Amino acid sequence: MDELFVLHLNFQEDAPVYHVTPAQRRSVNQLSEEEQIKIAKRIGLIQHLPTGQYDGSKKIRECVICMLDFQIGDPVRFLPCMHIYHTKCIDDWLMRSFTCPSCLEPVEAALLSSYDDGAQ
């Protein structure tokens, strides 16, 4: 096989895969410019959500996404609705759907309204 062709195949296999919609996933190489911008904005919004470590003081003891109990020191992310999840679990979820998996509150609307409140 041609070396350049093999290199191209390996690059495509290693390319990240994103969910354009909850049911549609494509390699970053297959995304339109508009889809890439939308995903970049979503990643930026996710990074603005606060994170921490589970300290055992919360009533919530289980991540409802993976259904595993939180362990002391687990990295967690807090949503504006005050629900908490393992960081990896919720980040993956939010790349597909920008709503809280527990209460279905739109995360983006809460984030954007908090920016608007701060700007006044």
Automatic annotation (TrEMBL):
Glycosyltransferase among keywords: no
Membrane-crossing residue ranges in chain numbering: none
This protein's record includes keyword Metal-binding: yes
Keywords, comma-separated and alphabetical: Metal-binding, Zinc, Zinc-finger
GO biological process: ubiquitin-dependent protein catabolic process
Start and end residues of each RING-type domain: 63-103
A GO-annotated cellular component: ubiquitin ligase complex
Protein name: Putative RING finger protein 11
Native source organism of the sequence: Stichopus japonicus (Sea cucumber)
Lineage: Eukaryota, Metazoa, Echinodermata, Eleutherozoa, Echinozoa
